[in-house]
Inverse folding.
C-alpha cells in the first residue's frame, strides 16, 4: 500500500513539472531510490531467509503446500551474514534479537511485482515530464540521466535481479538442472517483461552505460536463474536496444570463449547467448549486421583455435554451426564479404578434421560446416575441389546432410 501511495505522486509531479521542474525531478529521483532500497532489503535480507527456510522444508505428495506460504518461526538476526545487509540495515536490525512471524511467498511476489511496476512508472514519469535544461538546447539531453540517477538504475539491476528469485522458490532444483528449462508462471513472465520495459524507455547512451557495467552480473544471474533470460530476449527483440545490447553481450562472450571448452554448464549458457546474438541479426539485419561484422573474424578463428586444444571441442563447432545457420540464406552480404577471406583456411581445417578419426556425430558436424559456410554460392566455385570429400560423406550420411548437398552444392554444378 505504501508503494502504491508513493506512485500516486508520479502523475502529480508530471503535471507540475513545467512549473517546478527541478523539484519534480528531485522527488522522482528520491522515489526511485526508495524503491531500489526496498529491492535491496528483499534481495539481501528477506529473500535469503525465505530460501533458507524452504531448503529445510520437506514438500512431498499431494498435500504439499501450494499456497506459497512459508512459516519462518524463529530467526536470529545476528546469524545473518555481514555481507547480506548494509551497515545502515545492520544497525537498525541489531536491536532485535529474534523475529517471530510468518512469511507468505505469494505476498512477497506481489510486492516484487508492485516494485517493478512502480519503478517502470517512475521511469515513465522522468520521460513524460517537462524538465527544463538550462545548459543545452538539445532536447535529447532531457532524456539523459545524470550520474546519481544512473547509479540508482545500476543498483536496480543488481538488487532487483536477485529479488526476482522469489519466483524460483517452488522450483525443484534437480529438475531445473536436468531439463535446463524453468517453467514460468504467467505472473513471473509478466514481471520480467515489465522489468525489461524499464530500460527500453531509456536513452541509448544510458542503456549502454548501465549494461556495460552490469553485463557480468546479468549473465551470472541468467546462469543461476534461467527465467531471467527473458530480459535479454526483450532487449534483443527491440529495434532500439538490440544492437546496443548485442554489442555488449557479444564482447562479453568473446572474453569467455575459453571456458566453453571445459565447463559444460557454462558452455551451454554461452552457446545459448551466442545464438540469441546471431538470431538478432536476422531480426534486425540493417542494424545488427554492423554490430556483428567486427567480431565475425574473431568468433571463427578463435573457435577453430580453441577446438584444437580444449577438452570439449564439440562446443566450438556447435558455435560455428549456430553462426552459419543464422547468417546463411543469402541475405547478409555485408557479413559474407567479411567472411570470404576466412574461407580457404576454414575449409582446409574442416576438411582435415572430417577426414580424421572422430566419432560419427563429430564427422557429420564437420561435413555440415563445410557445406553451410555463409558465403554466396558463386564464391564457393574456386573451392569446389575442397568440397568433394565432404560431399561424398554427406551423400552417404543422414538425410539432413543430403539436404545440405541439394541446397548448397548441386546448384554449383549447373
Amino acid at each position: 500500500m505504501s508503494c502504491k501511495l508513493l506512485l500516486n505522486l508520479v502523475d502529480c509531479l508530471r503535471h507540475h513539472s513545467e512549473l517546478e521542474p527541478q523539484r519534480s525531478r528531485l522527488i522522482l529521483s528520491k522515489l526511485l531510490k526508495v524503491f531500489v532500497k526496498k529491492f535491496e532489503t528483499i534481495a539481501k535480507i528477506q529473500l535469503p531467509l525465505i530460501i533458507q527456510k524452504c531448503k529445510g522444508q520437506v514438500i512431498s505428495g499431494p498435500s504439499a503446500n501450494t499456497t506459497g506460504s512459508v512459516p519462518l518461526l524463529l530467526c536470529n538476526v545476528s546469524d545473518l551474514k555481514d555481507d547480506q545487509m548494509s551497515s545502515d540495515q545492520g544497525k537498525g536490525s541489531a536491536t532485535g534479537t529474534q523475529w517471530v512471524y510468518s512469511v507468505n511467498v505469494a505476498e512477497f511476489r506481489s510486492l516484487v511485482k508492485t516494485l517493478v511496476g512502480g519503478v517502470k512508472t517512475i521511469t515513465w514519469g522522468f520521460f513524460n515530464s517537462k524538465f527544463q535544461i538550462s545548459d543545452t538546447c538539445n532536447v535529447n539531453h532531457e532524456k539523459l540521466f545524470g550520474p546519481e540517477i544512473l547509479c540508482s538504475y545500476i543498483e536496480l539491476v543488481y538488487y532487483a535481479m536477485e529479488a526476482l528469485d522469489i519466483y524460483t522458490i517452488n522450483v525443484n532444483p534437480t529438475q531445473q538442472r536436468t531439463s535446463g528449462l524453468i517453467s514460468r508462471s504467467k505472473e513471473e513472465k509478466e514481471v520480467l517483461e515489465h522489468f525489461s520495459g524499464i530500460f527500453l524507455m531509456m536513452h541509448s547512451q544510458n542503456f549502454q552505460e548501465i549494461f556495460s557495467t552490469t553485463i557480468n552480473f546479468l549473465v551470472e544471474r541468467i546462469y543461476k536463474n534461467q527465467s531471467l533470460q527473458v530480459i535479454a530476449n526483450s532487449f534483443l527483440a527491440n529495434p532500439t536496444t538490440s544492437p546496443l545490447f548485442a554489442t555488449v553481450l557479444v564482447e562479453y562472450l568473446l572474453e569467455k570463449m575459453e571456458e566453453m571448452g571445459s565447463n559444460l554448464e557454462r558452455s551451454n549458457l554461452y552457446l545459448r547467448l551466442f545464438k540469441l546474438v546471431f538470431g538478432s541479426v536476422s531480426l534486425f539485419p540493417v542494424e545488427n549486421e554492423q554490430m556483428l561484422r567486427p567480431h565475425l573474424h574473431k568468433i571463427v578463428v578463435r573457435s577453430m583455435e580453441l577446438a584444437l586444444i580444449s577438452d570439449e571441442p564439440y562446443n566450438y563447432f556447435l558455435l560455428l554451426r549456430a553462426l552459419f545457420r543464422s547468417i546463411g540464406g543469402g541475405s547478409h552480404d555485408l557479413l559474407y564479404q567479411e567472411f570470404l577471406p576466412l574461407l580457404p583456411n576454414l575449409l582446409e581445417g574442416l576438411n582435415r578434421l572430417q577426414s580424421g578419426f572422430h566419432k560419427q556425430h563429430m564427422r557429420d558436424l564437420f561435413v555440415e560446416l563445410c557445406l553451410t559456410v555463409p558465403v554466396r554460392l558463386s564464391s564457393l566455385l574456386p573451392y569446389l575441389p575442397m568440397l568433394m570429400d565432404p560431399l561424398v560423406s554427406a551423400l552417404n550420411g543422414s538425410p539432413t546432410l543430403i539436404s545440405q548437398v541439394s541446397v548448397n552444392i548441386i546448384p554449383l554444378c549447373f
